[in-house]
Amino acid sequence: MEALIHEVYPVASADYTSAGHASADIKKKLKMLGVGGDVLRRVAVASYEVELNLVIHSQGGHLDLNVFPDRVELVSEDVGPGIPDLSLAMREGWSTANEEARSLGFGAGMGLPNMKRNADEFDIQSEVGKGTVIRMGFRLA
Amino acid sequence: MTIGDMVDILKARVLLGEDKLDTPVYTACCSDLMSDVLAFVDEKTVLITGLTNPHVIRTSEMLDLKCLVFARGKVPSDDILESAEEQGLVVITTKATAFSACGMLYEKGLRGVPVPLEWDKEGKEGA
Ligand SMILES: Nc1ncnc2c1ncn2[C@@H]1O[C@H](COP(=O)(O)OP(=O)(O)OP(=O)(O)O)[C@@H](O)[C@H]1O
Ligand SMILES: [Mg+2]
Predict the structure, then answer these.
(1) Euclidean distance between CA atoms A84 and B26, whole angstroms
(2) Could you give the number of structural domains in chain B?
(3) Number of helices (H) and strands (E), helices first, in chain B?
(4) Non-local CB neighbours of B66 within 8 Å, separated by 6+ positions
């Protein structure tokens, strides 16, 4: 199926000033398409979490938005450093966020569990030295 | 309870949204951890926080929050207030600490956001 919207947002490592702008734009675009309520909130929360993880933990990457008539897809892909232990990373409360990120209110270790809870489909692949790919799907009612 | 009632209870100062003080408040959440806020807060909730950085405003935007309460008399910088204003947020600041602000509101009947049931299970596993 052809995407109604296909958008690629580059996300730079440690760029706290722009962090969250991609998610704000994604939310705006979906709203304009008439997506609202629970799905919009779930996409917004998951995209914010995944975007902030790119800023805080990755060496840079991009967040892609694909909108199909019946579903929204978010794909985050980065160039490293990768996650050594995925089951640990998925656990609520586990975080390796640095002081700077913590001082801004990040590092609760809730981002990945939040994404999983909010997305209808969630897949994470990671390889140390290569990077992390996260795919999330959201059904449109 | 309305936002205006909260202003009275907390002896707060209204920084933004003077015209929206009759907005009803259903639940509250007090946290400085953005992911905790993102985990279980919805648009009917007031966020009480000690953080005044732009990420608090962006988190509020993601959740369509209506009202932010800054504790310990904190006032965000003008550019942060500007983006809050664009979102139509009501922003108030109280001299009370976060703990005391929560206590005062709780005493007057305001309650926390319910934590989803499924978490009880997860919590036990983790413990
Ligand atoms: N894109 C990524 N690249 C490398 N490591 C990552 C990436 N995303 C997450 N991680 C690792 O997984 C851990 C858990 O991520 P999660 O988003 O759940 O929590 P957090 O970002 O540390 O804190 P919070 O999201 O609550 O602010 C991170 O601390 C980090 O070690
Ligand atoms: Mg995170």
Answers:
(1) 42
(2) 1
(3) 6, 6
(4) B3, B20, B23, B43, B44, B46, B89, B90
Contact B42 A117 (CB under 8 A): no
User: Per CATH, is A5-139 categorized as 3.10.310.20?
Assistant: no
A23 at the B interface (CB within 8 A)? yes
Give the ligand 1 atom nearest the CA of A95: 29
A26, burial (CB in 10 Å: exposed 0-12, middle 13-18, buried 19+) = buried
Residue of B nearest to A117 (CA): B39
Tell me the whole-structure pTM to 2 decimals: 0.94
Q: Where are the alpha helices (DSSP H) in A58-124?
A: 86-89, 99-103, 111-118
The reported pLDDT for the residue numbered B47 is: 98
ipTM: 0.92
Which residues 35-74 on chain A approach chain B with CB closer than 8 angstroms?
Answer: 41, 44-45, 48-49, 52
Contact A91, A39 (CB under 8 A): no
Helix and strand element counts for chain A (H, E):
5, 5
Q: Does A111 touch chain B (CB under 8 A)?
A: yes
A–B interface: beta-carbon pairs under 8 A: 70
What would the pLDDT profile of A115-130 be if each residue is shown by its tens digit?
999 999 999 999 999 9
Rounded Cα gap, residues B112 and B108, in angstroms: 13
The domain of B49 spans 3-126
Q: How far apart are CA A20 and CA A105, in angstroms?
A: 13
